[in-house]
Amino acid sequence: MIPGPIEFEPEVMMAVGAPTTSHVAPDFIESFGHALEMMREVWLAPSGQPFIMAGSGTLAMDLAGANLTEPGDRALVISTGYFGDRYAGLLRRYGAEVTVLRAPVGETVALRAVEDELKRTRYKLMTFTHVDTSTAVRVDPEPLGALGEKYGVITVLDGVCSVAGEIIRQDEWGIDVVLTASQKAVGVPPGLALLVASPRAMEAWQKRKSPVGSYYSDWSHWLPVMKAYEERRPAYFGTPAVNLVSGLEVSLRLILKEGMEARFRRHRERGAAFREAMRDMGLRMIPVSEEVCANTLSAPYYPEGLKGADFMKAIASSDVILAGGLLPGIKDTYFRVGHMGSVTEGDILATVSAIRSALSACGYSYR
Ligand SMILES: *Cc1c(COP(=O)(O)O)cnc(C)c1O
Question: What is the C-alpha separation between 65 and 212, in angstroms, rounded?
Fold first, then answer.
């Protein structure tokens, strides 16, 4: 029950564990092409250009950063925690002049403040984290996409902890890049960076004056490969993660079989049920209100006086695996529970019960 790698469906593991085939074998070309097509449906981005690359979520962040910034470009980073701060550092590496609007812990940045900043300064790019995995704070991407369109700024949504869990309608919301990694709500073992770029983002990349600052991430190498696979032709730039792509095809199929709306609803219900159980035990969440709570993971504070190390030790002897805190400065004051992907009601109940036992073992009594 950690926020990635999550539990994977047996069918996905079967596909990942099958004998490795050639990356240009006809059945693999079919899987790759089909996975690209299905990404558009999962992202709700019929006009988007999907990319599947070997790497982690940070590579997906790098793809957007490297291809869409040139030295001297201005970038606005809306940070709700650890991963927003990471994006600021990444964009600076490619020569961007970065301004960070940082929310207080547990809160989001007010839309008003974002719009004021966009009015004040002309930005090329704006990034925001849908669910910051360090705080479980969820940002509403829709109005930020609208601001991007209004001010002509390319919008990049870090959806590593949200795609295929939280509601995302990339085309309808006008968000230019939505990126994620395989091991979170998409439900495939770690190793794939996934991204869908809008026609406007691809145009901005085509219009660049300077070469892309990363050799590996450069879309010039990868766009022809993605196009070829989608047209069911062999192509090569770097060897794809064959087994993981096969697993991705199966997982996307399962996601679409459930249906995006049903999947969004299930995550919302499971998330709300888990938070309610935590509140019943007297635990407070990092996000300051229900409206900004993620549905893919939760981050409850430890009760007053309880030592995080003692709690994690008690949890380690249960059969539930949880994650500790991540945000520098407060990481020892809270823990994190992922509830995304194939998580069932039974998983939620077992987790709540393990947390209750661990709290009792640490001498915490509630009601
Ligand atoms: C996990 C995560 C990342 C980083 O992904 P890696 O696969 O660990 O590189 C980036 N952003 C968010 C929101 C994440 O949850």
Answer: 10
Nearest-CA residue for ligand 1 atom 2 is 160
pLDDT tens track for 24-52? 999 999 999 999 999 999 999 999 999 99
Q: Coil, strand, or helix at residue 307?
A: coil
250: confidence class by pLDDT, cuts 50, 70, 90: very high
Taking only the tens place, the pLDDT of each residue in 264-323 is 999 999 999 999 999 999 999 999 999 999 999 999 999 998 999 999 999 999 999 999
- The rounded distance, in Å, linking the Cα atoms of 203 and 201 is 5
Please write the tens of the pLDDT for every residue from 295-310. Answer: 999 999 999 989 999 9
When pLDDT is cut at 50, 70 and 90, the band that residue 367 belongs to is low
Alpha-carbon Rg of the chain, whole angstroms? 21
The closest residue, in CA terms, to atom 14 on ligand 1 is 160
Q: What is the distance between the alpha carbons of residues 82 and 74, in angstroms, rounded to a whole number?
A: 21
Q: Domains in the chain, ordered, with CATH?
A: 10-258 (3.40.640.10), 260-361 (3.90.1150.10)
Within 6 A (CB) of ligand 1 lie 4, 56-58, 83, 129, 132-133, 158, 160-161, 181
| Full DSSP string of 259-300 | -HHHHHHHHHHHHHHHHHHHHHTTPPBSSSSGGGB-SSEE-B
